[in-house]
Design a protein that fits this description.
Layout: E1 2-5, E2 11-18, E3 21-27, E4 39-47, E5 59-63, E6 66-72, E7 76-82, E8 87-94, E9 99-103
Antiparallel strand pairs: 1-2, 1-5, 2-3, 3-4, 4-9, 6-7, 7-8, 8-9
């Protein structure tokens, strides 16, 4: 799930369903579209599953689908997002304070 937020500042929320909740990251500049340019991803509190379809005047669903985990350590998670129109492989990489969202060079065909 990718929410498009317009308040308090425009940003996107990446939400991955896991263990009965939506793990969530605020991504101020949206998903990366170039492996050479990472995007900041700020971990935010988990959300209930009913948030999957939640919209209001300031929040809309930018994309929805499912995700597939490929590898995980304490500092990195590699996964594929299978959205409405495409599937893309990403890595979330933990830094000292936040996360970086990285579009991997390796993409499935």
């Amino acid at each position: 799930m990718l929410h498009d937020h317009r308040r308090p500042r425009p940003h996107f929320d990446l939400r991955l369903e896991e263990d009965g909740v939506l793990r969530s990251w605020a991504v101020p500049r949206g998903l990366p579209d170039d492996p050479r340019r990472n995007r900041l991803a700020v971990a935010v509190s988990d959300h209930d599953l009913d948030h999957l379809t939640y919209t209001d005047e300031d929040k809309s669903i930018a994309d929805i689908g499912w995700w597939e985990e490929h590898d995980r350590t304490e500092r990195r998670m590699v996964f594929t997002l299978h959205g409405r129109d495409a599937s893309r492989r990403y890595a979330l990489i933990r830094t000292d304070g936040d996360w970086l969202l990285h579009l991997t060079k390796e993409q499935s065909e």
